[in-house]
Amino acid sequence: MKRKHKLYSKPKKSFDKQRIIEEAKIKEDFGLKNKREIWKAEEKVKKIRERAKKMIPSGEQEKEEYFKKLNKLGFNIKSIGDVLSLTKIDILNRRLQTFVFNKGLAQTQKSARQLIVHKKVIVGDKVINSPSYHVSKDLEDKIKLKPKKLKKIKKQEEKLEDE
Hints:
The chain has eight helices and three strands. With 163 residues, the protein is mainly α. Strands 2-1-3 form a three-stranded antiparallel sheet, with no helix packed on it. It is globular. The N and C termini lie far apart (63 Å).
């Protein structure tokens, strides 16, 4: 069995006031559970950038395939400069929690997170219960809330008929 590695690395300076303030603002804006989620987003950006740097000397076809892959994930990429300018904010904007809030399915970021964790959100045909789920471009329009149970509706109709 393979060893599971950490998906993030802690900041080098534990008590950097500017970083702490910035992370607190991002955490509040995106309704994140903890700062570890920000560090995970930073790690994803770091990996994407490293791969782009390795592709600089490679052929044009390989670059185009990589750009298509990133565009499918939802990033608007046309050149290596665009890849290198990606930030953790771009990654956080592609999270399911952010999409549920921006579509108006939830009042706040925290309530969007709660809806997802309580399995009330459907993406495509699947119920997703991870707020950090990365929404690709083709799934953007397929996010919706779970329909209410038919049993509850039938019970309400029966009550109305009895009155």
